[in-house]
Design goal:
Structural class: mainly beta
Number of strands: 30
Radius of gyration: 21 Å
Largest sheet: 7 strands, mixed
Distance between the termini: 37 Å
CATH class of the largest domain: Mainly Beta
Number of helices: 5
CATH architecture of the largest domain: Sandwich
Low-confidence stretches: 1-42
Length: 487
Amino acid sequence: MPTRRSVLTAGLTAAGSAAWTAGALGPLLRSRHTPATRPVAATAPLVQKYSLPLPLPRVLQPYSTADGTDRYRLTMRPARAQILPGLWTDVLTYGGHFPGPVIRARSGRPVTVEQHNALDMPTSVHLHGASVSEQDDGKPMLTIAPGQQRTYTYPNNQPHASLWFHDHAHHMESEHVYRGLAGTYLLTDDLEQDLPLPSGPYDIPLAIRDARFDENGRLIYVMGDHPNRTTLLANGRAYPYLRVAARTYRLRLLNSANLRSIRLRLADGSDIVQIGSDGGLLPRPHTTDAIALSPGERADVIIDFSRYPLGTQLILNNTNLEGGPADQLGEVMRFDVVRTAVDHSEIPAQLRTLPPLPTPTAERTITLHMDEDGRPDPQGYINDKTYDPDRIDTLIRHGASEIWTVTNTNQFVPHNLHLHLVQFRILERDGQAPGPAESGLKDTVMVMPGETVKLQATFDTYRGTYLYHCHLIDHSAMGMMAQFKVA
């Protein structure tokens, strides 16, 4: 595995702003390619689409529930998975599961996960979107050595949210996540449970990403290689199908790609109802025809299959192609409507009430930037600095509520920003109020080239040192990462 990362146009498939939500992405994504990122002839086998079923991630069961704490054990180890029809692929896994497993947790009830590292590289497990102590946050330099183990404690002292966990070992996180070290963590609470939303087998985690394979089905990893990662995976399988009943389903969408953003749309243009984002339910449902997600972002959506006759085969499209092959990047999976089912679920007009934002106590300016002049070893910067684990970049008073004005100063390369520890609210995007898809709690926000996003976060839980970084994770591995300290 390489330890020195280089990329120029990594992440040019990213999106999430009003520009690409409206379908005007193309002009923003004209770029030059260095030799390291110039598209090359594909060597992957021709994939027969819709020949394999969508894998449903395994829900883990705790080995102990004593003293009101759910305790789990996982071993990070190599495994093999059928990603492409007729071929087996070497992957990295949590507990041998590909796609990664699901942990279901409840607010107010602690969870511990004993992580054993049976790989030949250090790892560090970050629960993305969670409020945890700094020792349990999966810090890039606080790693688990090969053959060692570490127990992470998640107190779950926060409202419901669709979270995920993944590797965060610096300079290795990009390849580890690409090869499979990612899983789902669904945190629920009484507010969510009391709503008549689709549940049980009709509530499905759906992680979407891209990948590149050789002719034998082996994953090819090259830093910043997104132009050649043209095979789309849903729950770790290329172009699967899912047999559904003619009723409503809740899909927990996650963009788990390293660099590629997606814009999901049903092939017939039918409505999708978004009910949640990174930090849980939106205040109100949002009806749309497309869902935009940059790497690390999540969206909970409802799709009503009762409007289709039995026998319907419905493609889930990706309309964010960035000049790639439409026959590969334009389709994600297929829904096959095969049976009827009773459906007592509903989508309430009001999902939750978010408390009013407190009066801000400070304002900060954050700039995101990476070298895009063609140099052979470009780096990523936050406020013109690369990541230094021994440096505190931002000192925050405990209890403060701050407004951060985040600007992407690049001409070609998009970024997003992920804050550890906190969920935040988006106040403005280029001076305009956020759209309904960004009306809830967020921990990751897209920032297109030249764009400015204003957000507000309140730091009233844990004290300690935490990260903020671009979640186009090749960029963070290149240095686009900084630390804040709450004291």
